[in-house]
Design goal:
The structure is a single chain. The chain is α/β, with parallel strands linked by helices and about 290 residues long. The strands form four sheets. The chain has a five-stranded mixed beta sheet with strand order 4-3-5-12-6, with helices on both faces. Strands 10-7-11 form a three-stranded antiparallel beta sheet. Helix 6 links the parallel strand 8 and strand 9. Helix 3 packs across helix 8. It starts with a helix and ends in an 11-residue tail after the last helix.
């Protein structure tokens, strides 16, 4: 947020005083939103999204150019996002997309409400894609293990299931994303990585996961593209001997989009098919298309 901790804390306290409610539960180990905080954040995002959409629509109307908003999961590799956007722009140079990074569960209601014109989402049955149409885009991203620097596995080039046997799996809270939480545990178990138990950190922020590993609460499995600039030197990142990948990435859009967005969505679907074809030629296999 590019702000020091004291003024951030003071700003939150002033907001809580103005609202007359407590927005966060604070302990020595973690900070988590209260029920009131979750509701306020959700409603505030709607207001900000509506404002951004109004600004975008007004600018687009003034210059004759459409500026659709695209949601994108946080851990999509940058090169894949660039390939998609570059191909999309090549098809229609008059469209300038605005990309906002947010998790799949945040994108879905915004796609239904029209706050987003298109989403790049993890595809899992448990996410609830009702009212959303999808087109396969990319396969899942390889995952790696995060271990404490003095963990025995840190000395190895690759981590095997045996290296992590009996450990706790450090993972984001299930309440934050039950479908992805369960999927991660199940895919790891299928690959032979069976953990003693699950240690849930205070929140979904990746830094919470890193801190759990640093405190030696256990080990974590995270996407290969996991941002480690702020974690380098305090945790070790090691490839998995038996591969585990994130869920596949799909395009998502409202089942009944506004007329003005239909050409943009069709172009995006065509780009997705082109990219899948290019990946297939390189030995990758894409998932089937889906309409819900």
């Amino acid at each position: 947020m590019h702000i020091a901790q004291p003024p951030l804390s003071q700003a939150i306290q002033k907001l809580e005083a103005a609202l007359g409610v407590q927005l966060f539960e604070r302990t020595s180990r973690a900070v988590a939103p209260t029920e009131a905080g979750v509701v306020f954040a959700e409603e505030a995002r709607k207001v900000l999204a509506a404002l951004e959409r109004a600004v975008s629509e007004a600018r687009g109307a003034a210059n004759g150019r459409m500026e659709p908003r695209i949601g994108c999961v946080t851990h999509l590799p940058t090169d894949q996002l660039h390939r998609f956007l570059d191909a999309l722009h090549h098809r229609d140079p008059t469209v300038r997309s605005q990309v906002t990074h947010m998790v799949t569960l945040e994108q879905l209601p915004r796609l239904r409400s029209g706050e987003l014109g298109l989403g790049l989402l993890y595809f899992l049955e448990g996410f609830g894609f009702d009212g959303i149409e999808t087109e396969p885009l990319f396969e899942g991203t390889e995952m790696v293990a995060l271990v404490a620097e003095r963990h025995p596995a840190a000395a190895k080039e690759r981590v095997s299931p045996g290296d992590l046997a009996g450990e706790s799996l450090v993972l984001f809270p299930r309440r934050a994303n039950a479908a992805l939480h369960d999927w991660t545990i199940e895919r790891a178990a299928e690959a032979g990585y069976r953990f003693r138990d699950v240690y849930e950190v205070g929140g979904p922020d990746p830094r919470d996961t890193v801190l759990g590993v640093v405190e030696e609460a256990g080990v974590a499995l995270v996407p290969l593209v996991y941002e480690d600039g702020w974690a380098r030197g305090i945790v070790a990142r090691r490839p998995l001997e038996v591969p585990v990948s994130t869920p596949p990435i799909v395009l998502g859009w409202p089942a009944d989009p506004p007329e003005r967005l239909r050409p943009f969505i069709e172009n995006a679907r065509a780009v997705a098919r082109e990219l899948r074809g290019a990946d297939r030629n390189g030995g990758h296999i894409a998932a089937p298309s889906r309409r819900i």
